[in-house]
């Protein structure tokens, strides 16, 4: 029997989704000023949406179940992923890592037989998302978003170009992490249960994802070539004159990044590494830009709220998934991902008993295919949203425009994952 707490949680979850799509309205109200401009600004912060409504759920549970019952529910939630995304954002966004990635991107771009402006953009939109299979998707999203902000998004206007780029970025990051079994949150949630290792992911998912990522990046680069070749749009934003970053400092930062990735399942270890990292960054602050602490905390708050609210959606979501045939499941998982976290979706699907390999493949393929449609669809999306939102009109990103921009690259990914496979 469904409890009243589950019903209230589902209602609040629906309200949070509506709130997410209403953010541009609140942003316009905030920009108009007035006595309540601060409140409208708070409500326009997408990163705060699910955290705020999760707090409302906690208050409700405290009133109906008692404070002890509410706290016990929170204690059953796993907040490792929100904490990890926060930590990886702070480390990956540090100046030494960004400059190292700049060098790598420029090196690959010079080897391509096209103009540097087009090649550099293509590399950012393809190879950086695909690197998420090694350094995890949240790290890849952070790096790609910072590179785009510095090189292309600082120019005012050009929202059409920015939305097209953001839509492809979100889709490419969502599917770009499936070449391994540990980097994409929706894959990580089921890999052990389904018995999928990195070799399985590379042969059944990886090559399909790589083709889709490269195709999406190529088409986007071709469409946007007038903007990319238009003078200062493709000129990288220059940092103020300061000490160059030592190769030793870069190497130490890489070691921190690798350590955090390897400890991604162990919250005590990667939080300890974060404390050490902040201390090291402060000791060599002449090599640093301000750390991305506020943005990382806001993203962590968003994901934590999603964990709290999403934990009580099993009563309707799991039964819904269990009753679907493989092909309908694929379409359903792609659509459901737009309104819920794809990692939660695959986790609930993994609890369904008596499934075959085709059903499992369709579940995960649908979850990663739809991971670019909205900001809540995939755990790394709030990171990209937080970094880039200030470059858009009204200082926010329209969820509806993002949905439209991500539709075509999502269709490309859908076609690739629906190609015949050994399970068919």
Q: Main traits of this protein?
A:
72% helix; 424 residues; mainly alpha; 24 helices
Give an account of the 3D structure.
By secondary structure, this protein is an all-alpha fold. The chain contains 24 helices and no strands. It has helices spanning 4-21, 23-31, 37-43, 46-65, 67-76, 80-92, 95-111, 116-130, 132-135, 137-153, 159-176, 185-188, 191-194, 198-223, 225-228, 247-262, 267-283, 293-310, 314-322, 326-337, 342-350, 357-369, 381-388, 399-417. Helix 4 (46-65) packs across helix 5, helix 10 packs antiparallel against helix 11 (159-176) and helix 21 (342-350) runs antiparallel to helix 22 (357-369).
In short:
The protein has 24 helices and no strands. It has 424 residues and is mainly α.
